[in-house]
Structure to design on (129 residues):
């Protein structure tokens, strides 16, 4: 084989093998800002088994314009875990259609880096602040 053929073959192998590893590292080391949540029917995140779970994605649209409705529940309490938000996300007990401001109804905030924990609120929607 010629030197240019060998060089091209090695470069192709390296490029193809590096791509999946880089993508996996991005997923594991941050990736999309999100928080994992488990929903409970009781008001205290157990000891009953959780009823449903989801991953809340931080919106790139800030405020009410980026409001998203929760499509399951509502459940009495939520345990938030594995938080890698870069902005504060606010969860409401009202659907987006009933929000008139970023302080409507009852709400809880999950800040970037906030420790995991149980929150008692029947979540219906969320926004990024």
């Amino acid at each position: 084989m010629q030197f240019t053929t060998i060089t091209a073959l090695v470069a192709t192998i390296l490029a193809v093998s590096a791509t999946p590893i880089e993508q996996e590292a991005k997923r594991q080391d941050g990736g999309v800002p999100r928080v994992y949540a488990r929903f409970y029917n009781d008001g205290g995140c157990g000891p009953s088994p959780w009823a449903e779970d989801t991953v809340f994605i931080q919106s790139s649209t800030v405020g009410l314009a980026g409001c998203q409705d929760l499509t399951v529940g509502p459940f009495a309490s939520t345990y938030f875990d594995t938080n890698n938000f870069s902005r504060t996300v606010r969860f409401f007990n009202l659907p987006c259609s009933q929000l008139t401001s970023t302080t409507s109804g009852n709400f809880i905030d999950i800040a970037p880096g906030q420790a995991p924990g149980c929150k008692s609120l029947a979540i219906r929607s969320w926004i990024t602040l």
Remarks:
- Residues 21-28 have pLDDT under 50 and may be disordered.
- The chain has two domains: 1-31, 34-128.
- The helical segments are 3-28.
- The longest helix spans residues 3-28.
